[in-house]
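So, can you check this one?
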Amino acid sequence: MNCRILVVDLDGTLTLSRNTYELSVEALLALRRARDAGLRVVLATANGLDFALTIARYLGIRDVIAENGCLVYLDGETYELCSGDMASVDKAVLSTGAVAPSPQNKCRKFDLAYIPLVEDALERVAAAVGGGYVVQSSGYAIHVRPAGADKGAAVKWLCERLEVPCFQVAAVGDSDVDVGMLSVAWGIAVGNATESAKKAARVVVEGPSGVGFRDAVELILSGGACTP
């Protein structure tokens, strides 16, 4: 096995599909196999840190990248990789009438999430916040955060902090918000990933979502991933 760290997305990657929150049994068993093999597993999610840490505890994961890379919880310490006051941004987004705020926003600091109410919600939100912010859809919600921050930047920070070459870090994801980490690390996209995620990854496995994560873990443990 060439990989030392496994970074995995949550929604759409450890779940049964890209439109449910129910976790995949295949993914959970594969996650345990990865941990038992000695891989350091990091959960990388668009969710807020409090929620992510709660889920991570039940998954047996210690380290978390939350808010699409804006916050990192590593070895018991929280690091902020984003900055700025998002209150005015939130006001501008809600003034469009195109979205509703995620209940998690009360616990989020930099990456705000919104539920689309109209078909062109993404475009209207992007126009409202202007430059300086990233506006993306995860397939579950529309996310707005300071420019320059994403899961890829967080993985790069993680590599430097842990002194591990990024090619020895496997990342598995499914959506546009995973593109950064799939590009920076040794990226593996699940079979039903977005086209952008597939293009960013080195390998696209056949199985969708949780089954695809199982396929990715099999590839990693067989030594087929994390080659220079």
The radius of gyration is 17 Å.
